[in-house]
Amino acid sequence: MYDWLIVGAGFAGSVLAERIASQLNERVLVVDRRDHIGGNAYDMHDQAGVLMHRYGPHIFHTNSQQIFDYLSRFTEWRPYEHRVLAEVDGLRVPIPINLDTVNRLYGLDLTSEQLEGWFAERAEAVDEVKTSEDVVVSKVGRELYEKFFRGYTRKQWGMDPSELDRSVTARVPTRTNRDDRYFTDEFQFMPKGGYTKLFEKMLDHPNIEVMLQTDYQDVRTKIPHRRLIYTGQIDEYFNFRFGRLPYRSLKFEHVTLNTRRFQEVGTVNFPMTQDYTRISEYKHMTGQDHPQTTVTYEYPSAEGDPYYPIPKAENEQLYKQYERLAGETPDVWFVGRLATYRYYNMDQVVGQALATFRRMAAARESRPEDAGAPA
């Protein structure tokens, strides 16, 4: 009999497994369909010996001291500030759009103050910002929207930005200074030994067992457990009772090249050309010294593993039906991206898992018999 069965060995499941095992001294079994731990953050050395990310680049960044300190128990860090270029009009310019982006693209010599006015002159009045298109054209106008956002978004999501919730493009800021970092968080690092090593240390506890290549449906009635933490797709847990929640997927093409460096920065976006959305080169991120380099081409897809919940109002309404059902399901906690139908950064998933554990521990302390009540 296990105290907890945890479905999924990504950040949500692994953090909760570690907390329950080390802080509550309870037995945990973690199961995962894949042949490895770490979820989408899994990294590995390929045949050439280059450390790469099987599911595309994962860049750690956070403003939370608490989350950074927690993860620091399981890894040392390598400072890394991610930079991205977008190939537009035959040039490679910084994205998010900043002062250098505009000056290089248009052959100008604007100051930050002048750029504010330049944006204002081109911005379109929008009565209410509802869609991803509204977000961009109301800030920088239609021409930059067409160059940087529309094509990329249509490839990434398979639909026009005018059909998507504003949250999609709101994630990418517009700057009037020369800051070319993709993120501005206080803590920007990569795990020194890689993400997989971090997960190995996190799950290395005598109260934790891990079973890989194991489907929850195959073991749910065979392995005795008191409580369940589910980090998979919430609609799948309920046998798609109300229909399937739609996701966007990705296809990855990993290529090893006989050169030390392939591109100027970690990631180059292609909003106007190519079938792929971006190329990422891992040695920028890992700092690895190797005579070869490995890059990944990303092709968005309607089929495949669920990566991105599609942010539309009707999808949120469908999720709410499953959320209500989850609230009525005793002794099951739904945690993580797929279980809550949200796009989270890695640090946000860790934060959600830590907050969930605090609620679990508080419930156990106050009413041990109710410790497994859903969040």
UniProtKB/TrEMBL annotation:
Pfam families in the record: GLF, NAD_binding_8
Alphabetized GO MF terms: flavin adenine dinucleotide binding; UDP-galactopyranose mutase activity
UniProtKB keywords: FAD, Flavoprotein, Isomerase
Record Gene3D superfamilies: NAD(P)-binding Rossmann-like Domain (3.40.50.720)
EC number(s) from the headed UniProt entry: 5.4.99.9
PANTHER family assigned to the protein according to its UniProt record, in alphabetical order: UDP-GALACTOPYRANOSE MUTASE
Name by which UniProt lists this protein: UDP-galactopyranose mutase
Enzyme class: isomerase
Cofactors demanded by this protein: FAD
Provenance organism: Aminobacter aganoensis
Coiled-coil ranges per UniProt: none
